[in-house]
Design brief:
The protein is α/β, with parallel strands linked by helices. Strands 3-2-1-4-5-7-6 form a 7-stranded mixed β-sheet, with helices on both faces. Helix 1 packs antiparallel against helix 8, helix 2 runs antiparallel to helix 8 and helix 8 packs across helix 10. It is globular and about 45 Å long. The two termini are about 15 Å apart.
């Protein structure tokens, strides 16, 4: 059995992008380590106790069977035209020195003797500045740690277009620019792995639901997340029961 490290930008990304894969890996007996670059906070971390979003992340991780959760130590950079100054206690991830952040992640990869790193495609999925930084830092960390396999989580653009049509059909408010979303993620021709994770749909849905602050909040994805967790599990699995990756390993295996 191998150790797989999944590197994400914020708490809740792990469930939305790779929840089924993490549950499947854990179910198959692999050790799963989850590292988030940020704790999801825009301001300084609380002096006493762990931030709410990190507590939610640990609940989600337990549902998915993750063995270890690590915060890399950076603050959320936010999304949109305004790039706020750093909080007093740490650097926003998008402003972090790439080499320094990669060394932090590489140390965990090395400590865990990870056989595979899950990270993000070059677009950072939908283009969030922290997601793009995850791609850059993940690639460099894998190089430093000589991690043999690297899979970049993404979604085919044509699948994104179909999901957007469904969102409009169901009259779910979407605060993302649809035109922007359909030019992000990855072309289907670039994708090397598609995993059927419908068997783990209930775990993935429960992991999403564990992020109460995001489900019940006023963020751009909240209306979509609220509808997602209310779907019957079979329908959730039908819509979100596949996860996609691009294999960018130094020596890519000939087969999945």
């Amino acid at each position: 059995m191998a150790t797989v490290l999944a590197f994400h930008a914020h708490p809740d990304d792990e469930a939305l992008l790779t929840g089924g894969t993490l549950a499947r890996l854990a179910d198959e007996g692999h050790r799963v380590v989850l590292v988030v670059a940020t704790d999801g906070l825009m301001d300084a971390a609380p002096e006493n106790g762990e931030p709410l979003r990190m507590r939610e992340l640990r609940t989600s991780a337990a549902i998915l069977g993750v063995d270890r959760v690590v915060h890399l130590g950076y603050a959320d950079s936010g999304h949109g035209p305004l790039f706020y100054p750093d909080p007093p206690d740490r650097t926003r991830f998008a402003r972090a020195d790439t080499e320094e952040a990669a060394e932090r992640l590489a140390a965990i990869l090395y400590e865990e003797d990870a056989a595979m790193l899950l990270t993000y495609d070059a677009n950072g999925g939908y283009g969030h500045r922290d997601h793009i930084k995850v791609h850059e830092v993940g690639r460099r960390a894998a190089e430093l740690a000589r991690t043999p396999r690297i899979l970049e989580a993404t979604i085919p653009r044509d699948t994104v277009e179909r999901l957007l049509r469904l969102v409009r059909l169901l009259r779910i408010p979407l605060r993302h620019d649809p035109a922007e979303l359909t030019t992000r993620f990855s072309a289907r021709s670039a994708i090397t792995h598609r995993y059927d994770v419908r068997r783990y749909a209930r775990q993935k849905q429960a992991a999403v639901a564990a992020h109460h602050s995001q489900v019940d909040g006023a963020g751009r994805m909240n209306p979509v997340m609220r509808r997602m967790i209310r779907l019957p599990a079979p329908l959730f699995g039908l819509l979100l029961g596949r996860e996609w990756y691009i294999d960018v390993s130094p020596s890519r295996p000939s087969q999945c």
